[in-house]
Amino acid sequence: MFRKLLFSLFMLSSYLLTNAQTQKQVQYLSGTDNENTVTWDFWCTGGRNSGKWSKIQVPSHWEQQGFGNYNYGRDYVTYGKNFRFADEKGLYRYKFNVPADWQNQTVQIVFEGSMTDTEVKINGKSAGAMHQGAFYRFKYDISDKLNFGKENLLEVTVSKMSADRSVNNAERLADYWIFGGIFRPVYLEATPKEHIEWTSIDAKADGSFAMNVHLQQAQKNTQVTADIIDAQGKTVATAKAVNSNGSDVVKLLTSVKKPALWTAETPNLYRVKVYLKNANGNLTYHTEDKFGFRTIEIRKSDGIYVNGQKVKMKGINRHVWWPETGRSVNPRLDLMDVKLIKGMNMNAVRCSHYPPDKAFLNYCDSLGLYVLDELAGWQQAYSTKAGEPLVKEMVIRDANHPSIIFWSNGNEGGHNFDLDDDYGKYDLSNRPVIHAHHKPGNAFNGIDGNHYEDFYSTQKILADSNIYMVTEFMHAQDDGAGAAGLSDMWDLHWNAKRGAGGFIWAFVDEGIVRTDRNGMIDVNGVNAPDGVLGPHREKEGSYNAIKEIYSPFKIRMETLPINFDGTIEVENRYNFLNLNTVSLKWDLINFKLPTDETAGFTVLESGTAKAPNIPAYGKGNFKLPLPKNWKQAQALALTATDIHGEELYRWVWKIAPNSQIVPLLYGAEQKNTGKASASEDDSTITLRGGDISVSLSKSTGRIVALGNSKSMPLSFNNGPVLVSGDAKLTAINQTTDGDKVIVNAKYEGNLNSVTWTMYPSGWLQMDYSYTLNGKFPFAGISFDYPENFILGTKWLGKGPYRVWKNRLQGVTFNTWESFKNNTQTGSFPYIFPEFKGYFSDVSWVQFNTVEGKFIVATPQENMYLRLFDFYGLTGIKPHPALPAGDISFLDAIPAIGSKLGLKITPHPERYGPAGEPAEFNGETKRTLWFYFGLQQQDEENKQFVMPTENILTD
């Protein structure tokens, strides 16, 4: 028994030893990512903490470790001028041991990314030629320089700027933050002498499979075998070849019947295990790759096709970024970003302007995103000498990712045409190469990607002969663009034959935590706050708006029709999937009131519905199986989730109009409430009801003072002021109507009349009308209230985010509550949703202030609420201009533009019909209700007190 146990242990140890010797062994010298680092010795030659040996965490940027200077690429327009960091270098030292049993192996040292010129020494000997280029994996064979089983010394010198001018032009003088240091992992790879260095796979939608197996120190008569394994672990095909002449490349061919195809909607992956056996049939090495079966085509003058189906890009540009660590990240952050991108119902990402971490591409493969993998070249290109090795390094690392559908050879003029044919040398599938350009007339490979065209120039491009896949558009600086105008632009691309969609600029604000400024987040002025998310992935208003606009389950119904029977029209904006893959859930809900402790809603009844059988690009309808009493609810909510269980969108439609909802604020009848009264002096008319008094100016008709016998006076005053047009009071008088007091004010100009009605309970009704003819950025009325007195709001309307006229999507009906913040989108503090802005379809709003609470409501629909001073886009003047006053109740709000292509003044009207100012032709009427104080409650019904008389009308 003991002998058997010894024999079993011997066989197990032999198997483990053999297994280790037949596959790559990895030993990290640095940490694995920005959260798991290793301490090295470090010397910085310039800037902070320079000129002495210290310690640094690797991987990292040395700026984030307290060394050197901060630099934004645009700081330097002309090469050689004002380079504060031209001579800034980092000297690294690290001692490490290598296992003695690696002595007969090939050992390489691998750098995943180092900024930027990198010189490596092992035990005082150069590992090889200096590497130039910041974003690329490179390696050296150091087998002959190591002391096996003993201590070794690694020395690395990293220059922030390159000695090669073209490298600086391509990647160091770019419109993004420039850092120094070893920012991705460093590790050793030990392999047998003959091993697989890399593979390149071409797996087509018809099931054909080809693979180039690139060998190091290839031996004659080596057997090369590849097993293809599906998601269930079953081997579905095998390819074999014998390397009879000792070639460095062995090609394997086979096929799989009816493979599960890879698309962004169906990210089906396979594994391929590759084995090397010597002439005696003994296993000497093996490795594994993931891949997907899919075919990419550019059909000129038609579109981009994947697996024979036209696809349209719902994409975004992504920098590799985290505020505390810059471009040094980790797989957890990569996964979060992929989920956030897909959370906007996007299907594509452009890796701007350099290859990302390999983990990011793995998640794009497994979760489903089309990827544009880009060689750096920001408006200037690498030289051929500098660029050729970088193309090779990028492609051999990334070639087997099915998510990558295009190689992008530089950005906005940074295209070295001599490099275009280099990609195919290393990519067996020979993916198309594109140029991400910003000037008309530079179409390449049948694709025009011209940046930052407006709606009308886009129409002209789409009418031309090239496919239009715009690699940057809808520039999202601050709160501009992003989703603003996107609905018009997306419909334009979706419905155009040659429209291939595009990539919004950009994913996140590149805000860096400055270690030289007490941890402040710096976005370098207007250069870097370009994201639809903040630096720490705070969701701005465009995020959910994009989610709705890009929803493949496309519902356009904005309000329930009068004869609604549960039937809803829908469009399938998937490229592949049928809508019957979508799950639907409906809820009948009631909204919380101001007197409820919490905001939100109450679900009365729920159910599911069957999604319709509508193929990709089709249209149809479906019906919700609602109960007979569904009209007794205040609203209907519908949630659609995709085949993976992720929410596509949640729509909410009001069933009850404001004319039914707003009276709920008043509650049941309260007996003996008395009568309202009025008094006058030389300058004012004062109305009194209950504990509340309201004083109106006889010269303007506006509120000049408020009083409450049970609380301090409120500073809400100086209104109504007409925000567009003019008004001059011509007459004002007060009358009595039963227990109510009424003041009528007549005007000349655009404001016609204002009628004030005070009720015995203290509720104040204001009916007003105005006349406008023409287009106006905003329309309605304003009041003054000190912003520093405000604490927060609770309101029923669409939220929680603010809106613009050309970005009304992404908000839903609910009772929301927000606390005051001073967020100006694109700058610290990154607190979202913003408190200040325009809010849509407001039924009522309760203001919580240091002076007490007050409420404003409207029985009509479609009222916008404006809160205080804010801006959407920085510039010479903040954009758009604001209406007068502090708090506005509006019938129209402005659209917002974008910073690029618009010179000095943003022009939102250029981004489509939704960007046009609102047009008025005649009279507009609206009613507002006010209660200036802590509202009384009916203890039985927990509702506001108001006479039973229903004086609200539609």
Automatic annotation (TrEMBL):
Its EC number is 3.2.1.23. Residues 297-518 form the Glycoside hydrolase family 2 catalytic domain. Monomer. Gene3D superfamilies: 2.70.98.10, Galactose-binding domain-like, Glycosidases, Immunoglobulins. One of its GO terms (cellular component) is beta-galactosidase complex. InterPro entries: B-gal_small/dom_5 (IPR004199), Bact_Beta-galactosidase (IPR050347), Beta-gal/glucu_dom_sf (IPR036156), Gal_mutarotase_sf_dom (IPR011013), Galactose-bd-like_sf (IPR008979), GH (IPR017853), GH-type_carb-bd (IPR014718), Glyco_hydro_2 (IPR006101). Residues 1-20 form the signal peptide. It catalyses: Hydrolysis of terminal non-reducing beta-D-galactose residues in beta-D-galactosides. Residues 54-192 form the Glycosyl hydrolases family 2 sugar binding domain. One of its GO terms (biological process) is lactose catabolic process. It comes from Pelobium manganitolerans. This is Beta-galactosidase. GO terms for molecular function: beta-galactosidase activity; carbohydrate binding. Belongs to the glycosyl hydrolase 2 family. PROSITE patterns: GLYCOSYL_HYDROL_F2_1. Residues 739-851 form the Beta galactosidase small chain/ domain. Keywords: Calcium, Glycosidase, Hydrolase, Signal. Its cofactor is Ca(2+). Pfam families: Bgal_small_N, Glyco_hydro_2, Glyco_hydro_2_C, Glyco_hydro_2_N. Residues 199-294 form the Glycoside hydrolase family 2 immunoglobulin-like beta-sandwich domain.
